Amino acid sequence: MINQQICIRKCLESIVPNNAKCPYNMQAVEYNKNMEKMDRIEKLKAFLESSPKDNFLRHALALEYIKLEELSLARSLFESILTDSPDYVGSYYHLAKLLEKLSENEAAIIWYEKGMEVAKAAKDNHAYNELLAAYEDLVY
After folding, report:
1. Is residue 112 within 8 Å of residue 92, measured between CB atoms?
2. For 9-16, which contacts have Cβ atoms below 8 Å and span 24 or more sequence positions?
3. Are 132 and 89 in contact (CB under 8 A)?
4. What is the CA radius of gyration of the chain?
5. Which is nearest to 99 in space by CA: 85, 87, 111, 91?
6. pLDDT at 8 over 80
7. pTM beyond 0.70
8. Residue whose C-alpha is closest to residue 129's, from 95, 99, 89, 101
9. Dihedral angle sign, alpha carbons of residues 121, 57, 54, 94
10. What b-and-e string marks burial along 101-135, b requiring 16 or more CB atoms within 10 Å of the CB?
11. Confidence class of residue 21 from pLDDT cuts 50, 70 and 90?
12. How far apart are CA 7 and CA 125, in angstroms?
């Protein structure tokens, strides 16, 4: 699994050449950034066709959607991940942060609490502490 994740990361990093021409006359740097985000999404979707329940890929796609302000798509993916795999600790933090961004603080609190329970059960102290810090920032 780790080799697959490294391979996917390397693939996503090398998508858009620096000399890409923009059909809309945007500045090259801005165009490259926007095209890179879209290309990452397309690549992730292509990977997901062969592994539709791969949590790493779904999580990565949700993060890309957040960058494009496609918050409902990101939320749906995070919720799907956590429904299918409640032990996928990393998605709790990002879903709760997304809910904070949407001013759904009560829902965010619930997801932080669920995430802390799962992280504690998994003895993942790093994730637990990140979730706890975010939770405390929101609640207090």
Report:
1. yes
2. 11/43, 12/40, 12/43, 12/44, 12/60, 15/39, 15/40, 15/43
3. no
4. 17
5. 111
6. no
7. yes
8. 89
9. positive
10. eeeeeebbbebbbbbbebbeeeebeebbebbbebb
11. very low
12. 27
Q: What digits encode the pLDDT tens for the residues 89-135?
A: 999 999 999 999 999 999 999 999 999 999 999 999 999 999 999 99
Cα 103 to Cα 60: distance, rounded to the nearest angstrom? 23
- CB-count exposure of residue 96 (10 Å: 0-12, 13-18, 19+): buried
Is the sign of the CA dihedral 66, 68, 69, 73 positive or negative?
negative
41-97: per-residue pLDDT in tens? 999 999 999 999 999 999 999 999 999 999 999 999 999 999 999 999 999 999 999
Q: Which residues 6+ apart lie within 8 Å of 65 measured at CB? A: 41, 71, 73, 74, 77
Instruction: Specify the pLDDT at position 9.
Output: 55
Could you count the other beta carbons within 10 Å of the beta carbon of residue 83? Answer: 8
In DSSP notation, 100-136 reads HHTT-HHHHHHHHHHHHHHHHHTT-HHHHHHHHHHHH
